[in-house]
Request: fold
Amino acid sequence: MNTLLVVDVQNDFLPGGQLGINNADSIIEKINEITKLFDYCIFTKDWHPANHSSFINIWPKHCIQYSSGAEFSKNLIVPKDAIIIYKGMDNVIDSYSAFFDNDKTSETPLNSILLSKKVDTIYICGLATDYCVKYSVMDALSLGYKTYVIADLTRAVNVCPNDYETAIEEMKNAGAIIVTSDDLKLNK
Ligand code: VGL
Ligand code: ZN
Reply:
């Protein structure tokens, strides 16, 4: 079984949001087109308490629980019965990955859900290439999943101008298979 993991396509990461990423809205239409190619689609939400420690000196306040910034883009098609994974709720430790908090001591339900559905292959897209996508990809690989990155359906924060390229290279070196959305359609 395969699954598409759509990471953090939330208003605060889109242009105009609190941590708005350049051009991030341009990936949404194609994400909507490819969801039907997968056995399962799982969506993640960055979901922070209002006083999350990452707001002190790392990130602007973003994706605060129940705020409009934490909502999925209104253009993203999220099926009613889609599985949604929430992350980043612990005040004192961030969780970029959809699987584990950054210190690896606690985990979201994602791995057990995938195991129960006999998923062995994960395709990952969404935001941001250099943070939550990358951390999720690294954990997926370490858990033994065959892991694809749909590179054209990710966008990077680019704190440094080359962070997108560096992240893609790191994921590739760790064993991820880098593809584009066009490759997917041809393979099916
Ligand atoms: C993210 C920074 C802080 C992400 C989340 O979704 O990549 N980046 N929180
Ligand atoms: Zn966050």
